[in-house]
Amino acid sequence: MTGVVLIGLFLLALVAGLPLAVGLGVASIAVLALAGFDQLAVPTNIYAGIAKYPLLAIPMFILAGMIFERSGVALRLVRFVTAMVGEWTGSLAVVAVLVSMLLGGISGSGPADAAAVAAVMLPSMVARGYPKGFSAGLIAAAGSTAIVIPPSVAFIVYSVMVPAATVPALFAAGLFPGMIAALCLLIPAVLISRKYGFGRDYRAERPPLGKSFVDAIWGLLAPVIILGGLRAGIFTPTEAAVVAVAYGIFVGMVVYRTITPKTLFRLLVDAGELSAVVMMIIGVASVFAWAGNTLGIFDAAAKALVEMHPGHWGMLLSVNLLLLVAGMFLDAVSIFLILLPLLVPIALAMGWDLVWFGVMMTINLAIGQFTPPMALSLMITSRIAGIGIEQTFRWVIWFVLAMGAGLAAMVVFPELALWLPRRLGYV
């Protein structure tokens, strides 16, 4: 009964249009009251949920992503990658994917990555004959890989909820699958561009490679410093986020001089507001998870699901479909907080590696970020392009299938995710 009340009230709150944190809180408080628990458990668990050292990295990476987005790094990366790729039919589609991968190594956020690349590349792509729907769909798909390619805010939240999977292990495990997922997008991007002749009749002067490289070097060094410092043991993942912010401020204010003190203050305010929303959801979701675990709701549900799907592949298919659908409606952090208490017992019962499972979950959620009808990254790029999201449907389905193929490869061959963390001694 308590399980039905917990899940039922939460779903009812979402259908009613209540904010996610409110829905989680209402369902949790009602179930705890029904079970006779002291309501002091609510503030206690909210505090316990957010008073965790690794979570300090979240507001820092959010701020770092905003700083690099507005400092002009994205524009310089586009020029550099264009200089490498050249001008040919479909070349800008390739540039969009590669730049999104590079920015993903800085921001850790799919929507932020998609917004930065769309703001820089959409005008150029449209001017060269790429349809707005195609361009918005491709950039949304490529930008979503930012939550898989380290550093990733989603991986930090996952490690907090699943202590057996450390942040360095998850970062290492996500590198190759994230790159594979992004590179899979190049196949439909190039084939579609060549079929319809996108960019065929437009030839711009190719930027000089040497000058473009020098201009972009500060942006290219960012992921090297962050990931290299982590690997060398110079700083922890949380400290790496602070280093990323300091480096971004130096690049924006001293090197490029595109960020003024007034701009920086606005960035701090925006990052603070967004971080507050994320931390509020994390805190209330901790009460939701505590209520479900304490009352045995999630363990019972996990046991029932395992009995329904005794086979390895049947359970994998069910979990992946659940995550894909959830990713269409909610962001990755929220889904981790809501579903991990249910899915981790299933993963343990099936004998799955929790690091590999975290990467699999995150790729699913990345696909959900650009899968209609409620795709967050796709909504952002469509708004920047000035079109309705329905104009992207005919194009984006091919990108969903392409990244799905990359996900399938990682599921069938777990070593794609586990080889690097094992090589580095993290697992």
Provide a short characterization of the protein structure.
This protein has 427 residues and is mainly alpha-helical. It is built from 21 helices and no strands.
Q: Can you walk me through this structure?
A:
This protein has 21 helices and no strands. The protein has 427 residues and is an all-alpha fold. It has two domains: 1-39, no CATH class; 53-423, no CATH class. The longest helix is centred in the middle third of the chain and has 34 residues, at 261-294.
Largest sheet: none
Helix content: over 70%
Please state roughly what percent of the residues sit in beta strands, choosing from under 5%, 5-15%, 15-25%, 25-35%, 35-45% or over 45%.
under 5%
* Count of separate structural domains: 2
Mean pLDDT: 86
Sequence of secondary-structure elements: HHHHHHHHHHHHHHHHHHHHH
Gross morphology is globular
What is the helix tally? 21
SS-derived structural category: mainly alpha
Could you list the spans in which at least 5 consecutive residues all have pLDDT below 50?
none
Cα separation of the termini: 40 Å
Radius of gyration: 22 Å
Overall strand count: 0
List the defining traits of the structure above.
DctM, globular, 77% helix, 0% strand
